[in-house]
Write a structure and sequence with these properties.
Radius of gyration: 19 Å
Distance between the termini: 29 Å
Number of strands: 29
Oligomer: single chain
Number of helices: 0
Strand content: over 45%
Shape: globular
Amino acid sequence: MHKNLIPGFIVSVLSLFALCAFPASAQMPNIGLGPQVHTALGGFILGYDIDSTGTEGLLAESVSLGGGKNNVAVETFDQKTGKILKIIGQQNNTGNDYVALGIFGNSVGLVEEELSKGIFVNKRLYGVMNPLNGNKATGQWTPPFTKDDIIISMPDAQGSPTTAVLYFDNGGSFNSFVLGTNVAANTFGTPVTITDPDFSFNVSPVMDYDTQTNTAVLGGSLGCFGCSTEIGMVDLNKGTFSEFPGLGLGFVNGIAVDSANGIACTTTEDDFSIEIYDLAKQTGIIIPLFKATSQLNSGGAVAFDPIHKLFLIGQEFSSIAPKGSSILVYDEQGNFVEAVNGLSLPASPANMALHPSARAGYVIVTPELTSLQQFTY
């Protein structure tokens, strides 16, 4: 059973005790939950991220008014308190939407604006906030897309000037493509076409970005129960695509890459496992999630902490806590380290936006999807 994606990269925790302040980088924070972020208009969240070395976060929201009309907004928030700092853009009684795509490079926010004259999107614009803490739009990101090109994945790769974009043509060919970009400079490489159906948009491939080799690393599968997986490598310097067999079974739900060591971690659906790969050697190990007993306990999104060398695995139905969701933390050798319990993660793999030096992050809260929860690990 595949966990369907929630539109707009929607991406969750309950408190062991409330933290009064954003933890200092010199301290080892307690494992648990901190303040929440509540949307300014009370709408559901369409994408979010936090500045991994700064103090602010970014989100987009939408309030449904019925009849295809919405009130929509883009907002920044304070990571320490969860307070909304500023509404950057707002439209009322509109068919348009905003989607927060993330934070890129050196604190560069990126927001997609979907323009619609009816039930379909007619045009997509991409606004840049450089820097994010300027709390205002400063320009446009203008990828060479048609109106039918839709982004599947765009790893933030904060600290690197470049990242990769995985997108597909929704206008007829339905091909998938990977494109390199520098968001701040508004520059683009040549798109690389992905022809393997394991990475088609309809089977929800996942992607992260190796900043050291300028390589997009993909995980994919046809998705049938017991189907084998594939790891795809798009060398954006050479414009080439290659792949090697993965170790897990079923859908690949999440992926994250340690660029410094050339290691990738994935989660797979049917065998409720994680896989850790040496990308250069194209070898790896597979490990069932801690105390997982069935597909119900499969992992979702994966995030990587480059300072402490930890992979964080979102788990909708916890295999550790008696109820709710968990984030399971592993080292790069596949050893279970700890768990953050008491979350309420969605069925779709939920983005864990990290501030690694503080061992903290934010995730979305279900079922309302109108707030974000800080957690520490």
